[in-house]
Amino acid sequence: MSFRPILRKRAVLPLAAALVGSTTLLIPKTTIYAEAPSESIHARKPIYDDYPSRLPPQKYKPSNPDTSEAPRAPSPTDRLATQIGRARVFTQAHIVVLENYLNAFMTRALHLESSFTSTIASLAPPPEANEHLLPGGLYVLVAAMAGSIVTRNRNIILRSSVPVAVGIGAGWVVLPRTMRNVGDLVWGYEERVPVLAENHLRIKSAVEQSWTETKATGKVVSAWADERVRQGREAVEGWVRKGR
Q: Which residues of 160-188 are buried (b: 16+ CB within 10 A; e: fewer)?
């Protein structure tokens, strides 16, 4: 009794197989196509969104505000700020000009001071010359005053030239190195004026020639005086011998 259901299932399976086989033989072989899905269903979606490509191109908008608006008149504060800016620029420019002028003036003053000090220092005699400016300068001053006293009753030319000549001569005698330095300095300034330099050379050559002639004449006079003195002495000695 327990094997009846199993036997029934085994009997049903061949019957079902026979039914399916007869059905396939009786039905004609025709291909049945199902409805194809639309391409939009099978289309693969892109990884990135293509929204920007679908959007219309945007035009460049300048950062400046709309110029169609009417210009706004400057407020009193803006006008005041503009005037203050102009005043500051004007003041700064003039301050810079004044500063440059002061710098140039101070530079010239320092240059003149340095030139003056260096010139005075160059006039001093070297230590080995053994020249003292204080007594020597006093001697030169006294000699010039003596020349002025001697020519006080003479004409204006002598009263103005003799003290200078006597003072210069005394300076060359008492302070020769200092006078040479002073002469070199004066000659340096005279070279800037060719006419003055030529006159100086002419006068110097004339003075040197006169001095040379004076020295030669002095030697001749000295020799003549020595000769006369010798002759006089010999005459006196002869008279003395005859008197004996």
A: eebbeebbbebbeebbeebbebeeeeeee
Q: What is the Cα–Cα distance from 109 to 97, expressed in whole angstroms?
A: 18
Question: Could you give the dihedral angle defined by the CA atoms of residues 133, 136, 138 and 142, in that order, rounded to the nearest 10 degrees?
Answer: -150
> Residue 144 in contact with residue 164, Cβ under 8 Å?
yes
106-138 tens-digit pLDDT? 999 999 999 889 888 888 888 887 888 888 889
The four Cα atoms 121, 127, 129, 132 give a dihedral, to 10 degrees, of 70
pTM of the model: 0.47
Instruction: List, as one string, the DSSP characters of the chain.
Output: -TTHHHHHHHHHHHHHHHHHHHHHHHS-----PPPPPPHHHHSPPPSS--HHHHSPPPPP--SSPPTTSPPPPPPHHHHHHHHHHHHHHHHHHHHHHHHHHHHHHHHHHHHHHHHHHHHHHHHSPPGGG---HHHHHHHHHHHHHHHHHHTTTS-HHHHHHHHHHHHHHHHHHH-HHHHHHHHHHHHHHHTTSHHHHHHHHHHHHHHHHHHHHHHHHHHHHHHHHHHHHHHHHHHHHHHHHHH-
